[in-house]
Amino acid sequence: MGLFDIFRPKWKHGNPDVRIAAARELPDIGILQKMATDDRDWFVRHRAFDEIRDRQPGDSVYAHLAKHSLDEEIRRKAVKKLKNEAVLEDVASNDQFRYIRDAAAHRLDELRRNTYGEKSEPQSAKPAG
């Protein structure tokens, strides 16, 4: 534990176990999104994503994660939850990793074929981030 950890919020604590525990208690999806986007420890990022998924946020949270997370596996997981076709097209064209581009293209195909009876968001919907 660092000297300044007593002054920091738990989600910024130096100990990743404390940050994981904080993720379970955080009411703020925005902070969880930040943790899933850029926490330095992969297991903290994934626990934060699990908390987000369990709370069923709007598509804008998944859009942000799909485009901005430092963790490519978080980006792939977010793509699988997205319904915004414009964001999926962007990720399918521009992500650094082919398997994420392929996952976005596959998700886009699922939405267009209505594979799971989901409604996609219109093309004109603006993604957050």
Please provide a written account of the structure.
With 129 residues, this protein is an all-alpha fold. The protein has seven helices and no strands. Helix 2 (29-38) runs antiparallel to helix 3, helix 2 (29-38) packs parallel to helix 4 and helix 6 (85-94) runs antiparallel to helix 7 (98-113). The longest helix has 16 residues, at 98-113. The N and C termini lie far apart (33 Å).
Low-pLDDT runs:
none
Helix count equals 7
How much of the sequence lies in strands comes to under 5%
Taken in chain order, the helices and strands follow as HHHHHHH
What structural class is derived from the secondary structure elements? mainly alpha
Q: What share of the residues lie within helices? A: 55-70%
According to DSSP, the number of beta strands is 0
Distance between the termini: 33 Å
| Largest sheet report | none
Q: Mean of residue pLDDT? A: 90
**Rg result:** 16 Å
The gross shape turns out to be elongated
Search tags:
129 residues, mainly alpha, 7 helices, 61% helix, elongated
What's the arrangement of secondary structure elements?
Elements: H1 16-25, H2 29-38, H3 42-54, H4 59-68, H5 72-81, H6 85-94, H7 98-113
Q: Can you describe this structure in just a few lines?
A:
Helices cover 61% and strands 0% of the residues. With 129 residues, it is mainly alpha-helical.
